[in-house]
Every structure is written in structure tokens, then in C-alpha cells.
Design goal:
238 residues; alpha/beta; Rossmann fold; 6-stranded mixed beta sheet; 10 strands; globular
Length: 238
């Protein structure tokens, strides 16, 4: 651990984690032994070619998959030691996901989609509605609260997905290829918005991406190749 980083600043710790899949009874190493720390307020891009291990690493951090070996900590909780129910509770309370395909509920309005995770968290009605309305407004979606996903553009749907993740107040937000389905203008606007959330509210982001524009905005770039971390660059603060 960096001597200048207090333990409380480290919100994700990956300890010698590996991931091996079986494909037609043949073991495929998706992630070789990996050690990594994510600090509070980081704005990190995981980059690398297809098959490099970046999505595997993101899924392990998010508890969507379990390492074959090694341990992963979210705060002071070793999520690799949890049963399925306890792990689901950690994901619900501490991790915000922004999926490449948005994963919005088609029969719910934008407002209801943003409220959904908070509903599962049992946030009270008034607070849940207020937080959802505020988050949508801050992301430029005021006036669109009653629209369903099929009535929104791709960029608007992605912003609803971000609002859903942020409104639940997670410890960390994990967007997977956040600009993959967006045109360049929408992608740029989305990244600027998430960077603002990072700078103004201290929200921690870890992205999996191929997009040079995302990499340019990141303040820390972790490059993976063949299942290993090739480099970990902390950019000079702007």
C-alpha cells in the first residue's frame, strides 16, 4: 500500500485474485494473479484489448463473479467470503452498476427506474422520490421523468442508468463500456457529467472501456493485457 494512502481511503482491495473459466472442459485463464487498490474519489479507466481481463476484473470488483483464487474487499468486508444473500446485499448497498445495455426496466418511467434500487434498499417514499428527482435534474433530464425507456434517446437512457446508480449512494460506481452505444457528442457529455460528479461529490468511478475519449478524461489508467495489469498510471491532477 502507498505510504501516503490511509487505510480508510482504500475502498476496494484486490488481493492475488485470479479467474479461470472452463470452456469445453479446457481451463481458460481470464485473469492472472492480480493485486489492486481503488481509493475513495478515484476516477479510473480499465483499458486493454478484448480478452485482456478488464471486464472480468470489473465483474469481480462488483461481486457479479467470484475469483477462482484470491480475495476482494469492499471497505472492510471480504466479499469472497460471503454467501449469495450477503453478497447481494453488499451489491445493493455499496456498488452502483451502469451496464453497457443500460438494463432499464421497460415498463417503468425514468423516475421509477431511478427509484428502483432505492426501493429495494427500503428508502422511504418521500426521500426516494426527492433523491430521484434531484438526480435526474442534475443530469439534465428534468421534464422527462414520466417517459419510459423506449421514449428516450440512447444518451438519455444512459443518463437514467447513471442516475439510478448514483441516487442509491453507493461506495463505488462501475460503468461497463459507458460510451459504447452512444454517438461522440452524447458520450462526451456523459463522461463530462460523471467527471463532474467525481470532482464535486467525490463519487468513485471505475470504468471498463475501449474508448480513447474515456481514457483521456480518466485520472488513473490501468492497462491490462493477457489477463495481467501491464501498467497503472496516475495522471497529474488538472
Amino acid at each position: 500500500m502507498d505510504a501516503n494512502v490511509k487505510p480508510a481511503d482504500v475502498i476496494v482491495r484486490v488481493e492475488h485474485a485470479t479467474k479461470v473459466y472452463q470452456r469445453d472442459s479446457i481451463p481458460v485463464v481470464a485473469l492472472k494473479p492480480t493485486d489492486l487498490e481503488i481509493r475513495r474519489g478515484d476516477f479510473v479507466a480499465l483499458v486493454g484489448p478484448s480478452g485482456s481481463g478488464k471486464t472480468t476484473l470489473l465483474n469481480l470488483i462488483g461481486g457479479l463473479d467470484r475469483p477462482t483464487e484470491g480475495r476482494i474487499w469492499i471497505g472492510d468486508v471480504d466479499i469472497t467470503a460471503l454467501d449469495a444473500k450477503a453478497l447481494a446485499e453488499v451489491r445493493l448497498r455499496q456498488i452502483g452498476f451502469v451496464f453497457q445495455e443500460y438494463n432499464l426496466v421497460p415498463v417503468l418511467s425514468a423516475l421509477e427506474n431511478v427509484e428502483y434500487v432505492m426501493l429495494l434498499q427500503r428508502v422511504g417514499d418521500a426521500e426516494r422520490r426527492a433523491r430521484a428527482m434531484q438526480q435526474l435534474a442534475e443530469l439534465g433530464l428534468a421534464g422527462l421523468e414520466d417517459r419510459r425507456p423506449n421514449e428516450l434517446s440512447g444518451g438519455q437512457q444512459q443518463r437514467v442508468a447513471v442516475a439510478r446508480a448514483i441516487a442509491a449512494r453507493p461506495v463505488i460506481v462501475l460503468p461497463d463500456e459507458p460510451t459504447a452505444n452512444l454517438d461522440s457528442a452524447s458520450g462526451s457529455a456523459l463522461m463530462d457529467m460523471m467527471l463532474r460528479l467525481n470532482e464535486e461529490e467525490g463519487t468513485t468511478f471505475v470504468f471498463s472501456t475501449h474508448d480513447p475519449m474515456v481514457v483521456e478524461r480518466a485520472r488513473r489508467v490501468i492497462r491490462l493485457r493477457d489477463g495481467s495489469i501491464e501498467s497503472d498510471e496516475q495522471k497529474v491532477a488538472r
